Structures are given as C-alpha cells and as structure tokens.
Amino acid sequence: MTVSERAHELAIAAAQAAADKKAQDIVIIDVGDQLAITDAFLLAAAPNERQVLAIVDAIEEALLDLPEKAKPVRREGERGGRWVLLDYVDIVVHVQHTEEREFYALDRLWKDCPTIPFVDRDLARAEAAAGTGE
Questions:
Q1: What is the pLDDT along the chain (134 residues), one digit of tens a residue?
Q2: Which spans are transmembrane here (predicted)?
Q3: Are the beta carbons of 25 and 45 closer than 8 angstroms?
C-alpha cells in the first residue's frame, strides 16, 4: 500500500460518508504508484443528480469534521450533478451518476492498481448482529 496515513484516513472517512448517504459501488483505488498528484481515488455512484449532490455534501462535511480538517482545493461538476470531483490533494473523490460510472468505467481504467478495503460500518454492525442472533 503506497497511500499515506492521511490519504487513508481521508479515503475511509469519505467512503463512510458516501455509504451513509446510500452511495453505490464505493471503491477506493490506490493510485500512488501510478500518479504523482494524488495517493488514492474514491469512486462512488448514485442513481440521480440529487443524490450525487447529497453524497458530495456529506463527504465535504465529514472531512471538515475530522480532527485535522480537510477542505477540497478544487471542485468540479457540481452544476450538472452528474459527475462531481473533489480534489483533496491526498485523495480525489469522484461521485458519479450511475450512467457516468458505467460509461467512463474508471474502475477498469485503473484495474491494475490495488484497492483499499472499505466496509460500511452499518453493514458490518448488521452482519455482526445477525451472526449473534440479536
């Protein structure tokens, strides 16, 4: 894993914020060995523009709530709400409409890069509760 601790922290916090807003197909890709400009990409999808923007807002809020606050240095695509990019330098977040996610297939473009495991904490709790019979 080539991502810095900071990039890992940001990526996991952003992924959880996206999951909390019901984002789909959340993937964190370690691009540190391939790109000098960032350590990781976070990819997430939503079925409509309103949800894309809600996910973006949740990610920004979550990263501002970290002990070492993070604000994006660049934002693109908000007006259309089909593909919003948030550049945090350590990570770049791509929240895409499901159609854009399928068409541009960033996952396949970066398929040779390792992924960083992410498990939605709510899903993990539900599975743990089901396993204990609660």
A1: 578 999 999 999 999 999 999 999 999 999 999 999 999 999 999 999 999 999 999 999 999 999 999 999 999 998 888 999 999 999 999 999 999 999 999 999 999 999 999 999 887 777 777 776 55
A2: none
A3: yes
Q: Is 116 helix (H, G, I), strand (E, B) or coil?
A: strand
DSSP string of 61-99, one letter each residue: HHHHSSSS----SEEE-TTT-SEEEEE-SSEEEEEEEHH
The Cβ of residue 91 has, within 10 Å, a number of other Cβ atoms equal to 30
Q: What is the pTM of this model?
A: 0.90
> Which has the closest alpha carbon to 92: 104, 101, 80, 84?
84
- Which fold does the domain 5-131 belong to in CATH? Beta Polymerase; domain 2 (3.30.460)
